[in-house]
Design goal:
The protein has about 400 residues and is α+β, with helices and mostly antiparallel strands. It is built from 10 helices and 9 strands. The protein has one domain (about 5-100, about 115-410). Strands 1, 2, 3, 4, 5, 6, 7, 8 and 9 form a 9-stranded antiparallel sheet that branches. Helix 3 (about 80-100) packs antiparallel against helix 4 (about 180-195).
Length: about 400
């Protein structure tokens, strides 16, 4: 990577962090990858159920919910009782917003109960609200230190990262997804309005998922289909949900670890790269998404027939991320990526990229093992991870009497 490009990239990351603070925007699969195939739906169902064993927004197909916001927050609740109130309030607001309905009329002398961004009746619009907790919530403020899972740690920097403190970590994390951007905006605005004394936004990134073009999985802003190979739902108990165990407190069972990475893409440089080189870096055809040894998007690459990487390079992104060996089968992750476009940076370059989101049973065994294999891949000349964090998505809300974090805080 030439020096000018690397300097631009580092400056771009700093500019991205500034935007986040000032503007608040800041791999053995096969054809039966059902969670991926579902992503070809034009839109999510209008109503995404809020109650369940697991939270919504985890296995809900993407890009069915085309829009999202990813928000890290600092807990400002004065004590544990106030923290309980905060979690109950987030639950109540999410329960109402995801179901939709008419906001109450508080009378002439009171401010309106709703912003009316969505009109007089709030539509459900495929909305999901997912709440996760970060390792910093388990300090000495709320008496939770003894309840922290061993696997919940701050995200560390990998080689090729350029992490900015202003867009890292968080006590809490909200992922809000819906069919339209005004629904996402409305939900975040409503939740923050009702929780002003309990939490404060630390950083935020808005995302969007493109519709299938022309079919299949959505594309990222480098023009390649993103998230083709996903574990099938039959693997969720082995790869996704946190099981009972010595290192897993009872309150976390049924939740999942939530990894978020903001990845800047240097599209001005990428757009000057030969198409053959682009496809070699990914290991896939740009037009169809097919592996270089296949014909269709969901074809499974035959690495055994290509041990020297003469067809699919040994350093191709897809081959490093998912080598498809028995040893790496348990390191697969469920990805839920979104694109972002934050305009231009301070140097007049497009500030665009990927909101990498993955869910997994064990961060070290899955995400970190995958990311370690990707260190120094050729693609690092055109991308730069600079923010995000590790979190734990809480187990679901069983019914109308339950609330997010009840087992943790009771």
């Amino acid at each position: 990577m030439d020096v000018n490009r690397r300097n631009l990239l580092k400056g771009a990351v700093a500019g991205a962090a500034g935007t986040a603070l000032t503007g608040g925007l800041l791999a053995a699969g096969a054809r039966h990858d059902a969670q991926t195939a579902a992503s070809a739906q034009p839109l999510a169902p209008d109503l995404v159920p809020f109650h369940g064993l697991h939270q919504a927004g985890l296995v809900t197909p993407v890009p069915a919910q085309r829009y999202s916001t990813h928000v890290a927050l600092d807990a400002t609740a004065a004590n544990r009782a106030d923290l309980v109130t905060l979690f109950r309030t987030v639950t109540d607001r999410a329960r109402f917003l995801t179901a939709g309905g008419t906001p109450p009329d508080l009378g002439v002398g009171s401010p309106p109960s709703d912003s009316a961004v969505l009109g007089p009746v709030v539509p459900s619009d495929g909305l999901s609200v997912t709440l996760s907790v970060g390792s910093s919530l388990f300090d000495d403020r709320y008496g939770l230190a003894g309840r922290k899972p061993a696997g919940l740690v701050p995200m560390h920097s990998f080689p090729n990262d350029s992490l900015e403190p202003a867009v890292l970590h968080g006590d809490l994390f909200l992922q809000i997804c819906a069919n339209h951007p005004d629904t996402v905006h409305h939900a975040l605005r409503d939740i923050t309005k009702h929780t002003r004394g309990g939490m404060q936004i630390r950083y935020r990134m808005d995302g969007f998922g493109s519709p299938p073009r022309p079919a299949g999985v959505s594309r990222n802003l480098l023009g390649f289909k993103d998230g083709i190979s996903q574990p099938p739902p039959t693997e969720n108990d082995r790869l996704l949900w946190i099981p009972p165990g010595v290192d897993n407190p009872d309150w976390a069972v049924g939740g999942t670890y939530h990894v978020v990475r903001f990845i800047r893409m240097l599209v001005e440089f990428w757009d000057r790269v030969d198409i053959n080189e682009q496809e070699t870096m990914f290991g896939r055809r740009r037009d169809s998404g097919a592996p270089l040894d296949g014909a269709a998007e969901l074809d499974v690459p035959n690495y055994a027939a290509d041990p020297k990487g003469e067809v699919i390079s040994l350093t191709a992104h897809m081959r490093l991320a998912n080598p498809r060996t028995p040893e790496t089968a348990t390191s697969r992750i469920l990805r839920r990526p979104y694109n972002y476009d934050n305009g231009v940076d301070q140097n007049g370059n497009l500030e665009v990229g990927l909101i990498f989101v993955s869910f997994q049973q064990d961060i070290a065994r899955q995400f970190e093992a995958t990311q370690t294999r990707l260190v120094d891949e050729p693609l690092v000349d055109y991308i730069q991870p600079y923010g995000g964090g590790y979190f734990l998505a809480l187990p679901g809300v069983r019914d109308g009497r339950d609330w997010l974090g009840r087992a943790l805080l009771s």
